[in-house]
C-alpha cells in the first residue's frame, strides 16, 4: 500500500487573483535552466500541479507558484507559474505577491527604503522592488517586465458564431490576443459576463489554430496564452481602463493581469498611442488596480514596462494526499470528472 503525501502552501491574493505558493513536499526538478526544469515539471511531476491547482484542494481558477533553485547567478529566487491547464511563462500578479513574500520570509532583506531583487521567471529575469511604508513595512510592489512587443497588428481570425474578427497579438512575458469589444458592437461593462467569457475562449481557440505565434529567443515561449478583452480607454490616472483576461484552460483572471497590461502597453506603443514615462491605470474584474509605465524602449520596438500593485495574505495550509484516494491527483469539472469515478 502506498504512503500518504503532504504539501504545504502559503495562499495570497493580488487584486483578488489567487497566488498559491508551494512551500513543502516538492520533488527536486531536473535541468540546468529554468525552462528545462519547467519541462521536467510538465513531463515527470505534473501530479503536483494537479493536486494543488485542481479540486478538491484547488478550483478551476486557482493559480500557483512553484519555487525552484535559481539558474541566473544574480537571482534571489526562481519560480514556475502554474494554473488549471499547465504552466505559464510569466505572471505579473504572482510576481507582485512574491515581492512581499520574499521580504516577509527573509529571503530578501528589507531596508528602511525598501527592497529590490532579481526574480528568475521562465520568460527571463525580472527586477522586483518592494516599497516601504512609514513604519518600514512592505508596501506596493513593482516589477520591470522582460522586453515586450506587438507581434500581430490587425490580424483576422475566423471565430465560430462571430465570423471574422480583427485582433492584435502582443507579448508581455506571454502572448495574448488583445481585443477591444467595441469592435463587435459590445461594451465591456454592459455585456453579460458569460457572453464575454465565451467570446474570449472562442477567440483563443481560433487564434491558436489560425495564427503563427513564435518567440525569437526560445521555442518554449512561443504559444498563445489567452485573450484580453478591453474597453476603449487608454487608462489615464482617474480614468482606469478595464479588461477581462481569460487564459490557460479558459480560467478568468480577477486582477488586471500584470503580463497582460504589459502586452497592452507594448501594443499601444507599437501604434504610437503610448510613450515612455506616461502612467496608465488598469482594472480587472475585481475592481483592483495595477499601475503601469513604459520604462524603456529598444531599437527593435520592444519596451520594458514597470507594473505596480499590492498583494495580501489569505492563509497557510497543509494538504494531505491519502494513499488510495481515487481523486488524489485532482479533477476538473465538468470535463474530467465523468469517467474518473465509477457510478
Write up this protein.
- The protein has 343 residues and is of the alpha+beta class.
- It folds into 2 domains: 5-144 and 313-317, Diaminopimelate Epimerase, Chain A, domain 1; 149-308, Diaminopimelate Epimerase, Chain A, domain 1, CATH 3.10.310.10.
- Helix content is 18%, strand content 38%.
- The chain is built from 5 helices and 18 strands.
- It has an 18-stranded mixed β-sheet that branches.
- Helix 1 packs across helix 2.
- The two termini are 24 Å apart.
Supply the helix-strand structural class: alpha+beta
Helix/strand order: EEHHEEEHEEEEEEHEEEHEEEE
What is the makeup of the main sheet?
18 strands, mixed
CATH class of the largest domain: Alpha Beta
User: Which CATH-level-2 architecture of the largest domain?
Assistant: Roll
| Helical amount | 10-25%
CATH topology value of the largest domain: Diaminopimelate Epimerase, Chain A, domain 1
Amino-to-carboxy terminus distance: 24 Å
Overall geometry comes to globular
Q: How would you name the CATH homologous superfamily of the largest domain?
A: Diaminopimelate Epimerase, Chain A, domain 1
Number of helices: 5
What Rg, in angstroms, do the CA atoms define? Answer: 20 Å
Regions with pLDDT < 50 over 5+ consecutive residues? none
Query: What is the overall pLDDT average?
Result: 94
Number of strands: 18
Amino acid at each position: 500500500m502506498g504512503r500518504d503525501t503532504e504539501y504545504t502552501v502559503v495562499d495570497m491574493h493580488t487584486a483578488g487573483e489567487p497566488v498559491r505558493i508551494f512551500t513543502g513536499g516538492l520533488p527536486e526538478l531536473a535541468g540546468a535552466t529554468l525552462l528545462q526544469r519547467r519541462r521536467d515539471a510538465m513531463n515527470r511531476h505534473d501530479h503536483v500541479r494537479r493536486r494543488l491547482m485542481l479540486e478538491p484542494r484547488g478550483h478551476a481558477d486557482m493559480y500557483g507558484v512553484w519555487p525552484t533553485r535559481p539558474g541566473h547567478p544574480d537571482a534571489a529566487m526562481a519560480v514556475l507559474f502554474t494554473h488549471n491547464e499547465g504552466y505559464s511563462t510569466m505572471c505579473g500578479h504572482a510576481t507582485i505577491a512574491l515581492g512581499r513574500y520574499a521580504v516577509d520570509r527573509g529571503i530578501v532583506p528589507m531596508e528602511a527604503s525598501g527592497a529590490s531583487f532579481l526574480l528568475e521567471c521562465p520568460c527571463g529575469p525580472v527586477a522586483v522592488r518592494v516599497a516601504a511604508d512609514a513604519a518600514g513595512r512592505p508596501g506596493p510592489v513593482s516589477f520591470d517586465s522582460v522586453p515586450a512587443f506587438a507581434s500581430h497588428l490587425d490580424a483576422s481570425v475566423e471565430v465560430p458564431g462571430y465570423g471574422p474578427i480583427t485582433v492584435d497579438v502582443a507579448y508581455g512575458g506571454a502572448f495574448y490576443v488583445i481585443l477591444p469589444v467595441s469592435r463587435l458592437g459590445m461594451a465591456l461593462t454592459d455585456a453579460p459576463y458569460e457572453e464575454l467569457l465565451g467570446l474570449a475562449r472562442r477567440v483563443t481557440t481560433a487564434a491558436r489554430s489560425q495564427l503563427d505565434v513564435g518567440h525569437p529567443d526560445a521555442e518554449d515561449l512561443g504559444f498563445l496564452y489567452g485573450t484580453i478583452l478591453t474597453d476603449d480607454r487608454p487608462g489615464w490616472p482617474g480614468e482606469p481602463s478595464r479588461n477581462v483576461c481569460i487564459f490557460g484552460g479558459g480560467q478568468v483572471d480577477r486582477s488586471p493581469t500584470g503580463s497582460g497590461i504589459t502586452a497592452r502597453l507594448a501594443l499601444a506603443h507599437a501604434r504610437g498611442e503610448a510613450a515612455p514615462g506616461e502612467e496608465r491605470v488598469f482594472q480587472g474584474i475585481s475592481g483592483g488596480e495595477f499601475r503601469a509605465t513604459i520604462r524603456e524602449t529598444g531599437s527593435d520596438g520592444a519596451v520594458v514596462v514597470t507594473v505596480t500593485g499590492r498583494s495580501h495574505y489569505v492563509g497557510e495550509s497543509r494538504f494531505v494526499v491519502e494513499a488510495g484516494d481515487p481523486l488524489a491527483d485532482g479533477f476538473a469539472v465538468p470535463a474530467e470528472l465523468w469517467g474518473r469515478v465509477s457510478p
